[in-house]
Design goal:
Layout: E1 12-18, E2 27-33, H1 51-64, E3 67-73, H2 75-81, H3 83-97, E4 104-108, E5 120-123, H4 131-152, H5 160-163, H6 169-178, H7 190-199
Parallel strand pairs: 1-4, 4-5
Antiparallel strand pairs: 1-2, 2-3
Helix pairs in contact: 1-4, 2-3
Length: 200
């Protein structure tokens, strides 16, 4: 059961990202401020929710959130500053875009950089513990999946409509056959993934 909030006194914004471990495409982040009494029986960590239910939840979250924003940070920035910093940058940019200023930031995971003077709390597995982080995970995931599905139309050989840029076997096979596209992250050691695959 998700907790509706971390504390009751301050306005909380939940933050999460999607696409951090992908070989191709941007990293997406979302930030969501929900009413304290928000509840939906389907809401959970996006990895535990079916695609159909994620899309249903996205509409509910966007309609009922006090404020939300979704931002992407592209491959060139990921390669320049690394994926961790790019993920944190995306979350900071999300908070910038919120129409309501949060008083506490809840972040999924264990790494974050202070945003202005607003206190934050990193929570490992936060997307399966708190509603606002779970909602952010749903938005980040659905927006990124939509982006990779559109990108697939120009690069069907990589099967991004199915793997969304993650290092699945079909994706690795396509990279081996066609090489990397301009959307593949040069800073990721795809060669290491081939080596791991060959050992399995």
């Amino acid at each position: 059961m998700l907790q509706p909030y971390y504390q009751k006194r301050y306005v909380e914004a939940g933050c999460d990202e999607a696409g951090r471990g992908c070989y191709a495409g941007p990293v997406f982040a979302a930030s969501v401020i929900l009413p304290k009494n928000f509840f939906h029986p389907l809401l959970n960590d996006s990895k535990k929710v079916s695609e159909k239910n994620r899309n249903t939840l996205r509409k509910v979250i966007e309609n009922e959130a006090i404020a939300f924003s979704v931002i992407k940070v592209g491959r060139s920035i990921i390669d320049k500053i690394n994926i961790l910093n790019a993920s944190i940058l995306a979350m900071h940019l999300c908070i910038d875009k919120l129409s309501v200023n949060p008083e506490l930031i809840l972040v999924d995971g264990n790494r974050f950089k202070r945003y202005k003077l607003i206190p934050h709390q990193c929570i490992i597995g936060g997307d399966s513990k708190y509603t606002s982080i779970a909602a952010a995970s749903i938005l980040a995931k659905t927006y990124r999946d939509d982006f990779m599905t559109r990108l697939h139309a120009s690069y069907p050989e990589y099967s991004w409509i199915k793997n969304k840029g993650y290092g699945t076997q079909d994706h690795l096979n396509a990279i081996s056959k066609f090489g990397r596209s301009k959307h593949h992250r040069l800073s990721f050691s795809i060669a290491a993934a081939f080596n791991e695959t060959s050992k399995s």
